[in-house]
Design a protein that fits this description.
This protein has 398 residues and is of the alpha/beta class. Helices cover 39% and strands 13% of the residues. The longest helix is centred in the C-terminal third of the chain and has 22 residues, at 260-281. Bound molecules: pyridoxal-5'-phosphate.
Length: 398
């Protein structure tokens, strides 16, 4: 067992930095370490590199380079968008609409603004995790400042109808923000076509370094800073530019855009094989999230009568890295808010696992992971009095 390599199937929590990305970053640590805002000669190489990176980052979503604001990651971008829409001198109103399956960086930003006395409406989702744009429209009030619905969910992979939700927002003159952290570089996004005013993305989810992200702010939308400082990022996000980080993020975006289709195809093939085998070979298992509208790399399952956490630990002993949902939720005993929002009972939500597949995974790795999973589920169930009761009741009824 110990001789086997680790099989990493947790790419939605973070991804390996691509070698070309690392190479692109290295010159900006030592030789070209200058502050890009310096007027002397040492400032220029970093400044030029950041400018090129901004162009690549904008191109991914058909934005203009000066609509891209660098941040420390997806969480900062999300907090910034939500908080500055409803607080501060440029607040647009006092009511926020979000889906009930948003990432914790959105949900907790909303909980914070609720403590400030502002209002939040959580829009429910259907059993596959889809938000209904008509329901969003019904929630709009005269004082609604912002609607935020993620492009793709990080736990169940469901891809939301953001273009239609953007249309609703535009029609009512409400800001539309989307957390595209899981979708950026994975799914075709066009901020003009999709009526997006604000969009968050993060470098480490697509083969770039951790600690870098962006907020796209459509020209004409004026936000207050979340971080006060100097004139960086057009004066609304202070702090010395993370030059190597931004350069790496730009490179990762450039590479991701170039091979998006090909990567998605590889991931889809691996994912569908995984889904097929799991549902066929493991009794009382179900796939969570929408079957069609889902991220190519995501598969999320529930297994009745056992704890997802126990499966995860067992798989980990066998060298297979998966997740029970979001990294932020692990360590807490509450089942995922996303799975509960789908209408799953608590017990089923507790027995859930997320696989997110890097594109360079082999079919052998997937097959091995399913073999281990099947044996694990079988073994844990054989130890479970609940499962025993369940089988007995099944027989009794038959
Ligand atoms: C990972 C993630 C975030 C947070 O991004 P960080 O860069 O890690 O702060 C936000 N939203 C979604 C959907 C994510 O998957």
């Amino acid at each position: 067992m110990a001789t086997r390599k680790t099989i990493y199937l947790d790419n939605a929590s973070t991804s390996a930095v691509r070698m070309e990305v690392l190479d692109s970053m290295l010159p900006y640590f030592i030789e070209e370490f200058g502050n890009p805002d310096s007027i002397h000669a040492m400032g220029k190489p970093g400044r030029d590199a950041v400018k090129r990176a901004r162009e690549s980052l904008a191109k991914m979503i058909n934005a203009d380079p000066d609509e891209i604001y660098m941040t420390s990651g997806g969480s900062e971008s999300n907090s910034w968008a939500i908080r500055s829409a409803v607080t501060g001198p440029r607040a647009k109103g006092r009511h926020v609409i979000v889906s009930s399956i948003e990432h914790h960086s959105i949900i907790n930003a909303c909980e914070y603004i609720r403590k400030l006395g502002l209002d939040v409406t959580y829009i429910p989702v259907d059993p596959s995790g889809l938000v209904d744009p008509a329901e969003v429209e019904r929630a709009i009030r005269p004082d609604t400042a912002i609607i935020s619905v993620m492009t793709a969910n990080n736990e169940i992979g469901t891809i939301e109808p953001i273009k239609e939700i953007g249309e609703v927002a535009r029609r009512h003159g409400v800001l539309f923000h989307t957390d595209a952290v899981q979708a950026y570089g994975q799914v075709d996004i066009d901020v003009r076509r999709d009526n997006i005013d604000l969009l968050s993305a993060s470098s480490h989810k697509l083969g770039g370094p951790k600690g870098v992200g962006l907020l796209y702010i459509r020209k004409g939308v004026r936000l207050d800073p979340l971080i006060h400082g100097g004139e960086q990022e057009r004066g609304i996000r202070g702090g010395t530019t993370n030059v190597p980080g931004v350069v790496g993020f730009g490179k990762a975006a450039e590479l991701a855009l170039a091979d998006m289709e090909e990567r998605a195809e590889k991931e889809r093939t691996l994912r569908d094989h995984l889904i097929g085998r799991v549902l066929n070979e493991i009794p009382y298992s179900r796939l969570n999230g929408d079957r069609e509208r889902r991220l190519p790399s995501n598969a999320n399952f529930s297994f009745d009568h056992i704890e997802g956490e126990s499966i995860l630990m067992s798989m980990n002993m066998a060298g297979i890295c998966i997740s029970t949902g979001s990294a932020c939720a692990s360590g807490s005993l509450d089942p995922s808010h996303v799975l509960l929002a789908l209408g799953l009972p608590h017990e089923t939500a507790h027995g859930s696992l997320r696989f997110s597949i890097p594109s360079d995974t082999t079919m052998e790795d997937i097959d091995h992971a399913v073999d281990v999973l099947r044996d694990t589920v079988e073994r844990l169930r054989s130890l479970s009095p609940l499962y025993d009761d369940f089988l007995r009741s099944q027989k009794g009824e038959a």
